[in-house]
Design goal:
The protein is mostly helical. The longest helix is centred in the N-terminal third of the chain and has 14 residues. 63% of the residues lie in helices and 0% in strands. α5 packs antiparallel against α6, α6 crosses α11 and α7 crosses α11. Bound molecules: fe (ii) ion (FE2). Fe (ii) ion (FE2) binds next to loops.
Length: 191
């Protein structure tokens, strides 16, 4: 269990430290590591000229795979081990709602896109097809309607598409440190 709880002043360094120590872990079934995946997603967002908030969301969307780094109370807020829920929970004290919603919804966004865009499923990686099944498969019409009501829908979809594109072995990106000033700005702005 990690030492002390992060604060607004230390959260960016806290995240950087997790990635420094554990970023080389494999991203289940993909040919990139966790940190390569997260940095590629952030870089795709940056290349599209996305806002700081969306670059932060792309960078941190999978932080839920590391929630055992956070103190117990933060984990409890996540309720179960679904990484999108626990990831949003550990970020919520520090990051604006658009960031945490993109994190919380990034799995459902895949289920949504598979339901509304017939071509989307074909673009999923093998591992992503496998997890789709475990995550409940494509949404049904009622779920699609409810998902569309999310005020952050557009942002959520964009992050999902960067997530899907961020699985390319050997793709060069800036290091995590490049995104630290951006993360600090987003945390400082608050909600
Ligand atoms: Fe991801």
């Amino acid at each position: 269990m990690s030492a002390s709880a992060p604060s607004r002043d230390t959260i960016v360094e806290f995240l950087a430290d997790i990635l420094r120590r554990r970023g080389a872990e494999s991203y289940l079934g993909e040919s990139v590591t966790m940190s390569e995946h997260m940095l590629q997603a952030a870089h795709l967002a940056e290349e599209e000229g996305a806002s700081d908030e969306l670059v932060a969301a792309a960078l941190l969307h999978d932080i839920g795979h590391y929630t055992n780094e956070f103190p117990d109370d933060a984990q409890d807020r996540g309720i179960d081990n679904r990484h999108q829920i626990s990831g949003a929970a550990v970020l919520a004290p520090f990051f604006p709602q658009v960031v945490t919603e993109c994190v919380r919804q990034h799995v459902d966004a895949k289920r949504y896109l598979c339901a509304v865009d017939p071509g989307y499923f074909d673009r999923l990686s093998q591992a992503s097809v496998l997890t789709l099944k475990l995550q409940g498969g494509p949404m049904d019409a009622t779920e699609v309607e409810a998902f569309r009501a999310n005020p952050h829908l557009d942002a959520i979809i964009r992050v999902r598409i960067w997530d899907e594109g961020a699985k390319e072995a050997g793709r060069q990106t800036p290091p995590f440190a490049h995104y630290e000033p951006l993360l600090r700005r987003v945390v400082a702005r608050g909600d």
